Amino acid sequence: MPTVPTATPAIPLTSQQLYRKSDLKQLNPECQSTAQLTPLDDIVGQERAQQAVEFAMGIKEKGYNIYAIGQNGLGKRTMMLRYLNRHEPIEPSLFDWCYVVNFDDTRSPKVLKLTAGTGQEFKKSIEKLMLKLVKALPLAFDNEMYYARAEKLKSQLAQKQEAALTELSEEAKQKNISLSLTLQGDYQMVALNGEEPHDEVSFGALTEAERTQFESNINGLEVKLRGIIRQNTEWEEEFSDTQQEHDEQVAKDVLVHFFKPLKDKYKHQPEVRAFLTGMQADILSNLDIFLEESEEQLALAYASLEKKMPRRYQVNVIVCQGEQTFPIVVEESPSYHSLFGYVENATFRGTVFTDFSLIRAGSLHKANGGVLLMDAIKVLERPYVWDGLKRALRSRKLDLSSLEREVSLSGTISLAPEPIPLDVKIILFGDHETYQLLQHYDPDFSELFRVTADFEDVMDRTDVSEAQYARFISSIVHDNNMLHCDRSAIARIIEYSSREAQDQQKLSLHSANIANLLRESNFCAKAAASQSIEKQHVEQALKNQEQRVSRLHDNIMESFINGTTLINTHDKVVGQINALSVISTSDHQFGLPNRITATTAFGKGEVLDIEHRVKLGGRIHSKGVLILTAYLASVLGKTAQIPLTTYLTFEQSYSGVDGDSASMAECCAIISAISELPLRQDIAITGSMNQFGEAQPIGGANEKIEGFFDVCKIKGRSSSQGVIIPESNIANLMLRQDIVEAVERGEFHIWAISHVTQAMALLLGKTAATLRGDDAKHPDHYVPECVFGIAQQKLNALRALPKAN
Fold first, then answer.
1. Read out DSSP for 328-354?
2. How far are the Cα atoms of 325, 577, 590, 593, 729 from residue 703, in angstroms, in the given order?
3. Does residue 672 surpass a pLDDT of 90?
4. Which of 726, 727, 724, 715 is nearest to 749 (CA)?
5. Which contacts of 357-360 are long-range, i.e. CB under 8 A and separated by 24 or more positions?
6. To which protein family does this belong (predicted)?
7. Containing H/E element for 577?
8. Which residues are catalytically annotated?
9. Is the pLDDT of residue 723 over 80?
10. Residue 280: what pLDDT?
11. Is the pTM for the entire model greater than 0.85?
12. Please, are residues 642 and 648 in contact by the beta-carbon 8 Å criterion?
């Protein structure tokens, strides 16, 4: 014998159960508007997420970055920024970062770490120094003392050279040989015949011994002459070295004078002092660039990539912290270059060049020592950004490498700047799906983002939380400089939040929706020349929102008006029932009644779901049909197979159907078809069921009830109309005011049931299931007057028919 629970008749809900008003009991009675409320610093209801953020910010070890999970509109970014703006770093480690030339390798610029806020000052100090040197160095080489010393060195060189040649000339004269200098600058030795040079005739008249002697003397003198010429070259080199030493000493005196104050100023920063020392030595090696006189040469020196150029002494401050104590950077578009920085190229007279002064900072540079906030999906959809971010977080270094060099096969010359130490907290905002994908497919993710800040969608609705929510509303009003909300507007917004949460006991934490409603209410209040936002302005804003997004809803309702969509809201029909469904668009959802029909034919107890057969039914819907099939078998096919096949379908449904919220309606339609008892069409039903017939909660209860109510108005109202919902959905009801008022007047009814048999009793007008108590061995388990009893008699009659051969 089947076990059927004793189901008490369903009692209609009262109007008080359909909507929970906000009384603001915990709000001071004297508080009449948000002007008298202290705004909240935090986002309401996100204590769990805030604790996670506080933990992550308090721990300095590598890998404790944050992934903030939650849907858009929960105020994740707002909460983070409010908390971070109040956050005091435990161990502040802020520095200014500069790139300067590497005097040993110009392709690898060096990093200078300066005390926070001093980078620009250092840059200006170097610029002033260079301006002074550009003027002072040429002046040091353009005075009488310098010229006198130079002339003295030249004179000494000339005297030594002249003395050596004079001595050689005298020796040659003693040997009757003349030493002279030709017009071409060559030395010439000629044999003398007295005071005149020998000619061919006179030289030929000499004896062989005399001619040989002349040649021998000339050869010896030429050897000495070559020695004197080598000696002169050495003397000239010595002179050049002496002159260079003199120039360097002159320059060194100038440089020491100008560099000493800077070195004293930065004596506690060894890196800066080392750079200044290297700069001083490099200037000594390249004095000529300060002494150029040609404007073209100077222009080239300032713009080219040549080693000897003033721009090599510039300071490129890529991060200057200024007076801030904790950098907070929000990167809206995290491309590779915007995140990691890049090196610009410059053009001078058709030549493209680059150097350390063209290095530009990225968001990670600016956030170093603080926090960088980004959207996870934007990070993942940009090429190479995610890999670069992981590499930077693992190494804790910010390596400004050329993206073009990494992704191409060419060996293009580019800079290789020294990496900057990275100390930053990354906060990624994303949804659950992105989080799960990263957890599943990227093993590095859990190591680098060890803290999850999980944002709640709803919070408990209590008198205390309503008062807190009122302060949250006040914070939005203050932040956006709106008109203040009076007490009635605050209560209406809280009620709207509860409706958004689909629960009388909860409040929605989608702060973006609340902020949008307040902006639109503020607009309505100003349009009405009101001094504050009142309840009527909130209602007008909600009405305007509905009007903007309800085109599809209005088009479908028109099909009920003109009869295109068939619906019956007054009669009784066998095997036909009004079920309720929800249609959702991107920004709107609304409920509609759907006609479900069931027909039977002789068969093997199957329930054939036509939606499933034509592949319009989803898996959840198919599961719901199988569950109700199991239930029917348990109550009507305990001792013998049900000799019927039932055909079940959604009428005028031409798109996919999914979900199990129609399973109770389908069950009632099948029982009606089997028992041939008509179903009331003035009552619609929604709710799923389990194998024991127990009603299970569904979503969209408010929209479904409102949808049937609207169709009833179109087809003609009667006081018997109503909707059946699962008892567990009572807490979800936050219905429109016109429906609440209709229920209060007894013109519309809402029944909450716990078992499908209660719905059958309402829809069929009979008790669904009453077991026989007098004769347990009777083949019919149910009394003949109940619904199951009538259905059982129909089935027994079919079973008694002779089987076809």
1. EEE-SS--HHHHH-EE--EEETTEEE-
2. 51, 19, 5, 11, 13
3. yes
4. 724
5. 357/99, 357/311, 357/314, 357/316, 358/316, 359/99, 359/109, 359/316, 359/318, 359/400, 359/415, 359/417, 360/318
6. Belongs to the peptidase S16 family.
7. strand 576-584
8. 661, 704
9. yes
10. 85
11. no
12. no
